[in-house]
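Action item from last week, closing it out:
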Amino acid sequence: MFALRHKGGKLEGVHLQLSDTDLSILVQTILNIRSVIRRLLPAQPCLLCGAMSRNGLCCAACEAELPRLTAAHCPVCALPTTAGETCGKCLKKMPPFERTLAAFSYAFPLNQLVKALKFHEQLILVNFLADELARHVENRPDCLVAMPLHPQRLRTRGFNQSQLLAARIAKRLDIPLLSSACQRVRDTPPQSSLPWKERDKNIRGAFEVALPAQVQGKHVAIVDDVMTSGASIGELARALKKAGAAEVSAWVVARTLPQPAKTLSVSAE
């Protein structure tokens, strides 16, 4: 542990050796302080259920229900696999990005938080969602880019939620954010309004790397709120690779997972 002490009228750093018992006491003390601070904070309504809580944006019960992506999944596209191996689809045809990092699956009640941020300007959610994603980062890239919005869409919405998420993560992890490197040059219909089979065609050629020198030879992570088909992130990754990026990762708050097949009940007659 690093600490400061006075010596000769000056401050100097010293390293303290703490035993396991000391560390345990220190951690418990910090947790106790956090608990006291929470009790002193004014209660506020949970963004999901409305119950008054001092737990933060969501009450403890709702936060416990958030669908964190903890099950085994493909490291490339983040879809479920038996033991965390690369899925058959990615083995057959690798996407333009090398890996996907997702904090949650896009399911209730997390999907309500994403919609509240994206469509109802609940910008207070940016830090919470970005921090949850940042906690999962192990493989640090050279730089970040946010999924860009077309200027017309940006004027209509007033903000780019992916840019806000990326800015928070860049600050938390001290990673450069390339705010002007990528542009959306085609104003396409929203991907969510189209069948999956039409999304690749819809997004084709939608992105341009305006400052290729910033990404050449770099490992670039694309930050977005949700990955569904992966078409948008794939197309942006393709543009980055064309501009000279050596490696591209996809960082998303949530990954849409396949819905389990419904079983038909057969009555015995």
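Closing note: The chain has two domains: 18-65, 66-255.
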